[in-house]
Design a protein that fits this description.
nucleotide-binding; Rossmann fold; Small ribosomal subunit biogenesis GTPase RsgA; 31% helix; GTPase activity; OB fold (Dihydrolipoamide Acetyltransferase, E2P); RNA-binding; globular
Length: 377
Amino acid sequence: MSRSLISRRSPFGRGNNLSEQPRKARPQSPLDALGWKPFFQQQLSLDEYEHCEPVRVMAVHRNRLEVAGESGESSLPLESISLPTAVELRPTVGDWLLLEREDGGYRRMLERSSLFRRMAPGAERVQLIAANVDSVLIVASCNQDFNLSRIERYLALTRAAGSRAYLVLTKADLCADTGEYLEAVKSLRELPVMAVNALDADSVSSLRSWLAPGETVAMLGSSGVGKSSLLNSLSGVQLAETSAIREDDSKGRHTTRHRALYPLPGGGLLLDSPGMRELGLAGGEEGVAAAFEDIDALAQQCRFSDCAHDAEPGCAVQAALERGDLDERRLRNWRKLLREITRNQRTLAEQRADDRALGQFYREVQGHARSRKQGRD
């Protein structure tokens, strides 16, 4: 690929030039500011170190990727990349790619430190959300749309990816008493929580302790909870569109159209993404176990190792439920997520088997065609 296919702009673009920030808050290098870490550095061969430039995927569009590196931002046409068949191996927001320094050609994608994915709504396939995310802000609002089971789902996804999780309760300024919401999330043990007004820069400034220089932080939450408002307040620039929620049910409209990484003052990067009310878990039983540590610990105490936690004698889970130490809603959600993972994993396994069979069929047809051609020759 020639450099004529790559449009260069100022480093980091989007009106948020890190060079304008105070020197003491600026990371040591542009790559550090983009989240470059020893984990990625160690994957480079000597030849790649000398002849390739690492760039990070900042946004994914239908026909191109927006990437950023030491040379600034670039637009990389997808037609210039030989995309693999497996969805999990294709570039997504947050990925690190290697481009040839000489002509800007694509070399390869680096191994990920984390990967967020979900079952695509209405389809039996996996959809990638983001890669190489260090922390996640699970965003929920203090209104009718607050849903503890949905928060637990986001937490399970975050734990499965191996990322740190934080909970941000927005619209605190519109709530007469945030205490009931803070009390409701007490069951989510060891999950840091802050209640803020997403429209007020002073209110959200306390979140900066979760946005360390060089760290990549994603926001997960449904439409209308204030993710785009948080991005604008934290950046000090109108980077994302916002809109009002519906008054009858406190649900929001989609204002973010695609996932994108935005550098913030101080060196962190924040991922803004469309609201995801449907977040089918494509795997990650370990994430559910980590999000429901209390239930997992109880299950280990049951008399039978294959206890279904229903009516079996010596079930520690049922005993905790009867004592009032375990919330029935939480138990139902735990069961629901585990059933969903089992069902989705079976679906994906069947799909992979069908894909392999179809591939074998194509190869056999091509082999027969070549044999007939050779016979005629």
